Amino acid sequence: MALWFHSSHQIPALTAAATLPVLYSFRRCPYAIRARLALAHAGLACELREINLRNKPQALLDASPKGTVPVLVLQDGKVIDQSLEVMLHALRGNDPDGWLQPTHGSLEDMLALIERNDGFFKQALDRCKYPERHDAEAVNQAQADALTWLAALNDQLEETGYLFGLNPSLADMALRPFVRQYARIDEAQWNEQPWPHLQAWLQRWIDSALFAEVMEIYPGWVPGTRGPVFAAGIVGSD
Prior knowledge:
Elements: E1 8-10, E2 22-25, H1 30-42, E3 46-50, H2 58-63, E4 71-73, E5 78-80, H3 83-93, H4 107-129, H5 136-157, H6 170-183, H7 187-192, H8 196-206, H9 209-214, E6 229-230
Helix pairs in contact: 1-3, 1-6, 4-5, 4-6, 5-8
């Protein structure tokens, strides 16, 4: 059984003038953040097209009719429209700090944790963020599920400070954008939780040069124009 949903297909190759892959992104989306983390870490330069999710450009929909981000269009027209697939594509090309080779566990172990994050925790996170969209029972269960998940991550981080050993890994970078989103719901409550290892793990990343690189603010993309170059150089990770 696959540990993640694979989605890639082909559209006509980019024009000769388009010398870089094209990344459709939205700055605050945790899926887009994780994709940009891997692209920046791998030094895989691309043309960044920052989009408005309420007014999706036709070029995005032509590349990926589901209309979500991130979407990476390679020079040959291949489309990768799942965030984890974008990460793996970038890191298989260049992985200077060994994100795909954890010192504890395996790639399969990391993918299993990411799958659980993207299912179990993401559902709880959405209900905690938007309680007005759900009944009280569902919200209460989501809050309990989120606390259980985050406490388990804190325990996993206790020994080494990272999820799979001594160094940052694919799992750390795939999960941090979602934990950050939870922490931002109520920062005072987050700071009061008994999760010192999880809080330190998140803060190290927020304070890193890599985070600053991927969270830079870009103007919205105007169809028919070239977007800025993103991830032109390799930056460190933490």
